[in-house]
Amino acid sequence: MPSFSxxxxxxDLIGQTPLLELPFRKERLRIFAKAExxxxxxxxxxxxARHIIEHAEExxxxxxxxxxxxxxxxxxxISLSLVGAAKGYRVKILMSRTASIERRNLIRHLGGxxxxxxxxxxxxxxxxxAQQMAENDSRYFxxxxxxxxxxxxxxxxxxxxxxLRQVPGQRVDAFVSGYGTGGTLTGCGRAIKRAHPSACxxxxxxxxxxxxxxxxxxxxxxxGIAGGFVPPLVLSAPIDQxxxxxxxxxxxxxxxLAAEYGLLVGTSSGxxxxxxxxxxxxxxxxxxxxxxxxxRAERYYxxxxxxxxxxxxxxxxxxxxxxxxxxxxxxxxxxxS
Length: 337
What we know:
Layout: E1 19-24, E2 29-35, H1 45-58, E3 67-71, H2 75-87, E4 90-96, H3 101-109, E5 113-117, E6 120-122, H4 123-136, E7 140-141, H5 149-166, E8 174-178, H6 183-195, E9 200-206, E10 241-245, H7 247-261, H8 267-283, E11 289-293, H9 307-318
Parallel strand pairs: 2-11, 3-4, 3-7, 4-5, 8-9, 8-11, 9-10
Antiparallel strand pairs: 1-2
């Protein structure tokens, strides 16, 4: 009989993503972008999901009948569902009704259960609901992604060290990231600052909801970041500067990354690149500015990111099929013998 490893192989696909050098010829600038959309579920959140679940297992916090319960805009829910499926745990995700339908479908496809809520107070609504559910049922395990120090720790010991090994000359002049939970910004910021004390750690946030800049939370179109409150993890991030990016700027850059670089990424990635280019412009053409490409584009098909494509689909669907002289369709003709 063959011997089988007890570790699910899909977990070994997490991390060690490439660092891409992106030349922006029109701007005469370049930046470096960590391709986190290449993680197995399609986002950077695979890292925290694996780390938190494996830590819970090692410390006896998970039983075979445990249910992993988390509030998320979607990416963490997809990642927890992937890890849960691989390890045999039930996963229940609390999601805002405003999250894209593709994220819900991916969670369900991986066996996760979903409960939708009205985000009257942003993420805080779902976080409170998760805490109430856990108080009433001991089977629930809460990863607590917004406050769990393991989230930042994984990026500090993993993502950031990968960046420092991959960047030319192991030099980082600035690190730019938005924040959903704050784990990437805090963890990578700490490690990069430790290696390069003069490096600038930059928090990107939506111009319409620039809470770190003292503004009130408001609606914006950059899904997955700035969810209506400042997460506890962000409060310990070594932030030197804040850059605002509008939803429109993020959308335009995301479409440009696809059209000019072949990078199928989500809107938060476009926003990160916008902010990184601003930093590169400030620091000069030789500066090494690093940012994150957070997730893949497919989970945004129902959003404005793919609006133009949907209009083309609708037009083609409504157009009559061209026919030849005998009334047969002129394309996609399948002949069977």
